[in-house]
Design a protein that fits this description.
Layout lengths: L13 H10 L8 H14 L3 E5 L2 H11 L7 E5 L4 H8 L4 E5 L10 H4 L7 E4 L11 H10 L3 E5 L7 E2 L2 E2 L6 E5 L12 E5 L5 H8 L5 H5 L19 H11 L2 H24 L12 E2 L5 E4 L3 H13 L15 H6 E3 L6 H7 E4 L7 H15 L1
Parallel strand pairs: 2-3, 2-4, 3-12, 4-5, 5-8
Antiparallel strand pairs: 1-9, 6-7, 6-10, 8-9, 11-13
Helix pairs in contact: 1-9, 2-9, 3-4, 3-7, 10-14
Length: 376
């Protein structure tokens, strides 16, 4: 048996919807399917505006532009995240200030954020790892007391929530990813979520190359002009059509993934109770979306051995982020605030198992048996 780590989601309607775009002779950005996706996100999350983008990276770049992040500013984030979290702000001249993570959720340790704040700090960027929410009440309180912005990196958080609030809807702005590795995919893609109207008009301009073309199409102006610095952050409507076929079945896809996740957890509980491995933690008040399932081994050596064992069984299991502060660019553009007590240690132990819509029960159990065989 050969099992890939990820298979992009596919429902069967994608090609039909793409053909509709072609027939309508509207395949560029902000077509009918882009609008449908925006509306779906707004309805599901409760945000005032959602704007589909070419990637989560670009959604985060838009957030940095809208917040007018400048050279010399500092932005607090975990080091255990994808490079895009830092890149968006580094491109504006800001310094990434890395804070250690919690070993239970792999999320930024909210208790360490305040000590990292300086007079240069402008924003906090919590990253909801594996679709499990950061401790947002604490983070929002810190931000309010220090007059800081909060940009949620909810790349992995679609359909997940914190105390009843959708991830991406709690901070000033939120960023989704619809990359092929995510629960819902358009190949490459993302979305910028705006909690309220504060940045809605400017976001539309920044996303449309700095012009008010969207207002022109709505008949609000008789011609469109260059208004502000911006770029082209609009995905093709064909990409949006591919995505919408999955958003229509979002609950079915979510439930299927949760079933796989719950099977992993149930079957590995004995190994965890024996202290042979550690399982993901979902704190009270958090509803996750089964974005990934990982186990934690004793150390890097054991993780490598388990990974090799699974590869020998035809199973592709993978590690995850190399902490940004240990990378060449991280050393150049950022700094670590406080002690790296858990970031490197925990990242060395974490191994992600195959998790995707369409993974069969037989495959799920085969992976579980292969892990148990290793620990036997």
């Amino acid at each position: 048996m050969k099992i890939n780590f990820n298979v992009p989601p596919h429902t069967g309607k994608e090609l039909d919807y793409i053909k509709e775009c072609i027939a309508a002779e509207k395949i560029c950005g902000d077509g009918a399917y882009t609008k449908k996706c925006n509306a779906w996100i707004e309805e599901r999350t409760g945000v005032k505006r959602a704007l589909l983008t070419t990637s989560c990276t670009h959604a985060t770049e838009m957030a940095a532009l809208l917040l007018d992040i400048k050279e010399g500013d500092e932005v607090i984030m975990p080091s255990y995240t994808f490079v895009s979290t830092a890149d968006a702000f580094v491109l504006r001249g800001a310094k990434a200030v890395f804070v250690d993570i919690r070993p239970d959720t792999m999320n930024i340790d909210e208790k360490l954020i305040e000590a990292a704040i300086t007079e240069k700090t402008r924003a906090i960027v919590p990253v909801h790892y594996a679709g499990v929410a950061c401790e947002m009440d604490t983070i929002m309180d810190i931000a309010k007391r220090h007059s800081l912005y909060v940009v949620e990196d909810a790349a992995q958080g679609v359909m997940a929530s914190y105390k009843g609030k959708a991830l991406g809807s709690i901070g000033d702005m939120g960023c989704f990813s619809f990359h092929e590795t995510k629960n819902y995919s358009m190949g490459e893609g993302g979305a910028l979520l705006l909690r309220d109207d504060t940045y809605a008009d400017m976001a539309e301009i920044v996303r449309e190359k700095g012009t008010d073309r969207s207002r022109f199409y709505r008949g609000q102006v008789d011609k469109y002009t260059w208004q502000e610095a911006g770029s082209s952050y609009l995905p093709s409507d064909m990409n949006a059509a591919y995505l919408y076929a999955q958003l229509e079945m979002a609950d079915e896809i979510n439930n299927a993934r949760l079933k796989i996740w719950n099977t992993y957890y149930k079957e590995f509980k004995d190994l965890a109770d024996q202290g042979k491995l550690e399982l993901p933690v979902v704190p009270e008040g958090c509803v996750h979306n089964a974005h990934m399932f990982y186990v934690k081994t004793a150390d890097l050596k054991e993780r490598t051995a388990l990974k090799d064992h699974l590869a020998g069984k035809g199973i592709l299991a993978v590690s995850h982020y190399v902490p940004l502060h240990s990378s060449p660019a991280g050393k150049k553009y950022g700094r670590f605030a406080g002690e790296d007590k858990y970031t490197t240690k925990e990242s060395d132990r974490l191994l992600r198992l195959p998790m995707y819509y369409g993974l069969t029960e037989e495959e799920n159990l085969y992976i579980i048996d292969s892990v148990k065989e290793f620990y036997a």
